[in-house]
Specification:
Length: 428
């Protein structure tokens, strides 16, 4: 049957079974945040379009093709957050966080929106969690960022994590490298895929990122940024590697990792699970240093470093990419100390009130208010391993009484309705 209304392509309903993973991930993030002293931040989902055009960058895939942008009746151009970092930098400026002790540490978890072609690991609404350090240049911060994400993923049970690492230089050395790369690529233009021929004009670094087989041989022979770093970038990268060695955190120097966003400077990294399933999903987390972003948005020079991870990708791998569906409440009622059964309209009304009294008295109670047959309710009580069943039949409802049945022995006793909570509390 084709339904008139369904979720929009690339967007999903999330049910309890999947949300349990969200809760687990959030808890791990919160523990990590408490340990390192990160404050949680929640920014609005809608921001000015210009924030991302400026921050994420006009020539990036996100801004060129993937943003959900709208114009309000008042004429404002707004965009659904495609990533958090520009919003974090905006909040840092707007609330004067530069006055806080350095580094300013913020973390977040929430939805992002990108109009990408839906496929394994790519949704149009997905969730990211992220950790951002602002205000400190030290490469130790880069190492800590990597470690935080590595540890969260390890804590979730990933065992084959690989950290891909690169430095993409800064405003001083990257323009020269871009020129060198450009010359090299131009002379091999005919061996590049159609997309890369366009990239070559806009941002030759992005060619290094291309996944097309056709471009592989050209990429292999390409000059590497790491050999063209200025002294400042070199002096930042070397100690970062030493910190990671010290932390016993193994990494893979990947000269093709550029991360495609304009604001990155120096360190970029991604973490992926090195299994066939992991490869199908793509990177679990990615980030790096963005020393120029705050200034680009109108603030002072502010070094910064951070990363984000995709919650759904993580869950897909943890669950083997199973499609989630609502759990059947009948299959998963959990357990209860007491079960409340009722037969007839008057009993149902009184049961509703009693249920509330039991909740207030903190009795773990199960119910079958949606069921009419006593037999079905008793089966449910059995499933929930209730010690006692309270049975409110038509006669009991009229007499303001209730039956307490002990499930194990089968013994029953009538008590006044007004005394039942007290009686049950005594027995439990
Ligand atoms: P990015 O900044 O694009 O590298 O995103 C960081 C992380 O967010 C990625 O490593 C993914 O885990 C996740 N992510 C990015 N785009 C999507 C998407 N379209 N669908 C699901 N997860 C995504």
């Amino acid at each position: 049957m084709s339904l008139k209304f369904q979720t929009v392509t690339g967007m999903k309903d999330l049910f309890e079974t999947e949300l349990a993973y969200f809760a687990k991930i959030e808890k791990l993030c919160q523990n990590m945040a408490d340990f390192y002293g990160f404050q949680k931040i929640q920014t609005p989902i809608l921001e000015q379009t210009e924030l991302f055009e400026k921050g994420t960058g006009l020539t990036t895939d996100i801004v060129e093709k993937e943003m959900y942008s709208l114009r309000t009746k008042g004429g404002d151009g707004l965009t659904l957050r495609p990533e958090w970092t520009p919003a974090i930098a905006r909040a840092y400026l707007q609330h004067g966080l530069s006055a806080w002790p350095k580094p300013v540490k913020l973390w977040y978890l929430g939805p992002c929106f990108r109009h990408e072609r839906p496929q394994a690991g790519r949704l149009r609404q997905f969730h990211q969690f992220g950790f951002e350090f602002l205000g400190v240049q030290d490469p130790m911060i880069d190492a800590l960022t990597i470690q935080i994400f590595y540890n969260i993923l390890k804590g979730l049970g990933f065992r084959n994590l690989v950290v891909d690492l690169n430095s993409i230089g800064c405003g001083a050395c990257r323009p020269y490298f871009k020129k060198t790369l450009n010359n090299y690529l131009k002379s091999r233009q005919s061996s590049l895929c159609a997309d890369c021929r366009v990239r070559l004009k806009k941002n030759p670094l992005r060619v290094l990122d291309c996944k097309e087989e056709k471009c592989e041989p050209v990429k292999k022979g390409a000059p590497q940024m790491i050999d063209h770093l200025c002294k400042d970038c070199h002096d930042h990268f070397k100690p970062l590697l030493e910190y990671l060695d010290e932390l016993n955190l193994s990494y893979n120097l990947n000269p093709y990792l550029v991360r495609g966003l304009d604001y990155y400077t120096k360190t970029v990294f991604e973490i992926r699970e090195d299994t066939p399933e992991g490869a199908a999903q793509g990177a679990l987390a990615g980030g790096g240093r963005y020393d120029g972003l705050v200034k680009m948005l109108g603030g002072k020079d502010t070094p910064a470093c951070g990363a984000a991870a995709g919650v759904e990708r993580i869950i897909n791998l943890l669950k083997g990419d199973k499609t989630f569906s609502p759990k059947n409440p009948e299959d998963n009622e959990g357990t209860a100390e007491v079960f409340l059964a009722q037969v007839g309209d008057l009993a149902k009304r009184k049961a509703l009130k009693l249920l509330e009294e039991l909740r207030v008295a903190k009795v773990k109670v199960g119910e079958g208010l949606h069921k009419d047959s006593l037999g079905n309710q008793m089966r449910l009580a059995d499933k929930m391993q209730a010690k006692y069943v309270l049975i409110l039949g038509q006669k009991e409802a009229l007499d303001d009484e209730i039956i307490i049945r002990e499930m194990k022995s089968g013994s029953q006793k009538n008590v006044p309705l007004s005394k039942v909570v007290q009686e049950i509390k005594k027995r439990l």
